[in-house]
Design a protein that fits this description.
five-stranded antiparallel β-sheet; Methylamine Dehydrogenase, Chain H; six-stranded antiparallel β-sheet; 46% strand; 2 domains; elongated; 63 strands; mainly beta; 3 helices
Length: 780
């Protein structure tokens, strides 16, 4: 060994000699411990929520950092310790956007998500609901007649394929499925997770093929709008009728074997019903025809306005008829065809104050004997009961579009802005004590700012940092603003007129980009209100989220420069619009990241999500291998910086999720991370992140992570949920999204967490933030 090598060996040996950390715990509990260099940067994570007994503890440090490298000037290092008196505990409070009676499984909540309830039926034993295409949720159920108890549920019939119509005849419930099959089983079939009505694994009942010969069967991913439904079905007292719009035909079928008993030519038939005489009532154009099995047709109703579906009151033969756009009304006719009454606002339910007596986008209608039920696609997706006089009685919210998001008001956590579908926002008022909510207002969202604010799937970011159309609430200068997480879009709430007024929209292309700022308060772009610049989508607006909770500044991670950039608000103009710094000249770089292969970030579908406190800046970072599944990463860490952008800590240790269905993966160990989905916020100087694994198998609670501002691990929100107040399956959120928002409840010292699920939102109260023990000292 030469002299130089010997000196290097001796220096390394001296630098990694053992150093001592000693501390005394007055109580037992989980301990997180880390070592920091003289500059205050975390260099070695020692313990992560490690259970320790009360008493004296000593740790011998070898002088190496987390990467196994010697730490210079080790004797000048310090240590910090965090001990929680008890794990963080989530208490389920209530569900938003679904008010149907719950079942015993995690998926027995709302009905449908990609489509709303498309089929509704009722008999003396209960009410039946069925949705169109759905994902990871049930899409058929039965509840008792007053809607207070769920009697059975059914899972999606094959991936996505849903139900278009129900019929009830001689004790059987018949389903017209999207794939063209008619399935049936007894109305009181036992509860079961069956994929479809038919034969095979996880299936129940029987089925037969109702698809018109030679026509194209709907694919499993055929996301048809309501008006795209080309068939309808009705059944009563052994008579079944199916309409084929595209084939200009109505068929009488044998309910149990599908035998074609008669085919009658009708021009573009839509909704069908079977009257008390066994004849078919068929919507064609703006009329209803009476069609008999021997092929005779006769006019029954005429002069209608966009009729869509109808049903017959079995007591007296009266007909309830639902009209779709542009009418959005319900009419009742006598058995002789005389108008009895009509209800609903012509043109549909207005935006503004919610009026449940009005309709919007009716998908189905059924008579109940004491009135009728309607199902609706527009926000709020619901099934509503009306009496025989057409008066509103009650409604059930049936669930919203896939993976909703909710934005609580930071000044009033009982006010939540919830995205109910692709096009609208609901303003909800929560009652935590009663565990209920009500809808205050409905706001139009999609199509604003000259259609620059589009549906949630337009221009969204599929990666980390929020859901599909997540918004957050910000308050400035007496105004309420909604800022979109994954796109640079800001909306001012016009409380006086009950409208949303866009004030900022950024559009970033590969070469030419623009930033629109409203100058006159009309919420519509004018030619002189744009700032254009040559700055491509591959610039700093590749992927990120809104910044601090007390401002409207935007933060963006630029994976090419490996920095986060701040785009600050310089002022507010007379229209109440935030005026951002000129782009890209005045944006400010914040931190530069270390610890991962920068080249892999170019390949990542998921990169950075951001949360901020007064003196800390948190960024959750993933990288993904090429062609990886959407929930797989090969690197995941939380990066922590101070307010000036200096590194404080890099924490979290990526581990691969075990092979197999991801929703059944075991919980990772303390400080271990599968794959970050989102940073839902920071409370009490603690950043909270979610995993792609939402725990929606019902066997495990959702995986979340929490680190304090010093990089000390504090566990997860759902590690020890309170199962005394709610079953375990209530402690999950969407496995595909993990979006959510967390707010401090300053009155109680607790936190409120609003989590997105497959077709609903859930609200939790999280306790355990008080009484934290913090110790610190010098390394010896």
């Amino acid at each position: 060994m030469n002299i130089k090598a010997l000196l290097l060996f001796l220096l390394t040996a001296l630098s990694v000699s053992a150093h001592t950390i000693s501390y005394t715990l007055t109580k037992p509990g989980p301990v997180s411990l880390a070592i920091y260099n003289p500059g205050g940067v975390l260099v070695r994570t020692v313990h992560e929520a490690k259970p320790q007994a009360a008493g004296r503890h000593t740790y011998e440090w070898d002088g190496l950092d987390d990467d196994g490298q010697p730490v210079p000037n080790a004797l000048a290092c310090t240590w910090k310790l965090l001990q929680l008196p008890a794990p963080l505990r989530a208490d389920y409070l209530l569900t938003l956007l679904v008010t149907l009676p719950q079942g015993g499984e995690w998926w027995e909540t709302g009905v449908g998500n990609h489509s709303a309830v498309r089929a509704v039926a009722a008999d003396a034993s209960g009410i039946y609901l069925g949705s169109g295409i759905s994902e990871n949720v049930g899409n058929a159920m039965k509840m008792n007649p007053d809607g207070t108890k769920r009697l059975w549920s059914a899972w999606q019939p094959h991936p996505f394929r849903g139900r278009w119509a129900f019929g009830i005849s001689k004790g059987n419930l018949y389903h017209l499925q999207q794939d063209g099959y008619v399935g049936y089983h007894p109305v009181n079939a036992p509860n079961g997770l069956y994929q479809s009505v038919g034969v095979g694994k996880n299936q129940t009942g029987s089925r037969w093929d109702a698809q018109w010969p030679g026509s194209k069967r709907a694919a499993s991913d055929d996301w048809r709008p309501v008006k795209g439904q080309s068939m309808d079905m009705a059944a009563h007292n052994g008579v079944m009728v199916i309409s084929y719009r595209d084939q200009n035909a109505v068929q009488f079928r044998g309910p149990d074997d599908g035998a074609v008993l008669a085919t009658v030519e009708v021009d573009a038939p839509l909704g069908v019903a079977v009257d008390n005489n066994g004849d078919a009532l068929v919507i064609s154009g703006n009329a209803v025809l009476r069609v008999t099995r021997d092929g005779k047709t006769a006019p029954f109703l005429s002069g209608l306005d966009a009729p869509w579906r109808l049903d017959v009151d079995r007591r007296n033969g009266d007909v309830y008829l639902a009209e779709t756009e542009p009418s959005h009304r319900v009419r009742r006719f006598s058995a002789a065809g005389k108008l009895v009454w009509e209800t609903g606002r012509e043109g549909g339910r207005e935006y503004g104050v919610y009026k449940p007596r009005h309709f919007k986008d009716i998908t189905d209608i059924t008579a109940t004997g004491d009135g009728f039920l309607v199902a609706e696609e527009a926000a709020p997706r619901r099934v509503a009961r009306f009496d025989q006089a057409g008066k509103f009685v009650k409604e059930w919210h049936t669930g919203t579009q896939w993976v909703p998001s909710g934005a609580p008001d930071p000044d009033d956590p009982t006010t939540v802005w919830a995205r109910a579908d692709s096009y609208d926002l609901l303003k909800l008022k929560l009652d935590f004590a009663a565990r209920t909510y009500r809808i205050e207002r409905i706001y139009r969202l999609s199509g604003l700012a000259g259609k620059r604010i589009g549906p949630r799937f337009k221009g969204h970011d599929e990666g980390i940092g929020g859901g599909f159309g997540d918004w957050v609430v910000r308050k400035r200068n007496g105004n309420t603003y909604l800022a979109r997480r994954e796109l640079m879009q800001v909306i001012r709430v016009d409380e006086k007129n009950g409208a949303l007024k866009p004030v900022v929209v950024g559009e970033f292309g590969k070469t030419n980009s623009s930033l629109w700022t409203d100058g006159d308060g009309d919420g519509e772009p004018q030619p002189g209100e744009f700032r254009k610049f040559a700055w491509g989508e591959t610039g700093i607006f590749g992927n990120a989220t809104v910044g601090a909770p007390d401002d409207l500044d935007y933060y963006r991670y630029n994976r090419y420069a490996n920095k986060v950039y701040r785009v600050p608000v310089q002022k507010f103009n007379a229209a109440g619009a935030p005026v951002y710094a000129p782009l890209p000249d005045l944006v400010t770089a914040v931190p530069t990241f270390t610890g991962f292969d920068l080249k892999k970030v170019y390949l990542a579908k998921s990169t950075g999500a951001i949360a901020k406190t007064d003196d800390r800046f948190f960024v959750a970072m993933n990288t993904q291998p090429p062609k990886a599944d959407w929930n797989v990463s090969d690197y995941a860490q939380l990066h922590i910086f101070d307010a000036e952008g200096n590194y404080v800590a890099r924490v979290g240790r990526h581990v691969d999720r075990p092979k197999g269905p991801y929703q059944f993966a075991p919980r990772p160990g303390p400080g271990e991370v599968y794959c970050f989905k989102n940073l839902v916020g920071a409370v009490y100087d603690v950043a909270v992140a979610t995993d792609f694994d939402g725990g929606f198998s019902g066997k495990l609670s959702a995986i979340t992570y929490a680190w304090d501002k010093n990089g000390l691990f504090a566990g997860g929100l759902f590690d020890k949920p309170n199962t005394k107040t709610a079953p375990l399956h209530q402690y999950y959120h969407s496995g595909d999204n993990g979006s959510g928002t967390i707010l401090p409840d300053k009155a109680t010292g607790e936190a409120l967490y609003y989590a997105g699920r497959e077709n609903e939102l859930a609200v939790y109260r999280v306790s355990g933030w008080k009484g934290w023990v913090r110790l610190s000292g010098k390394v010896k």
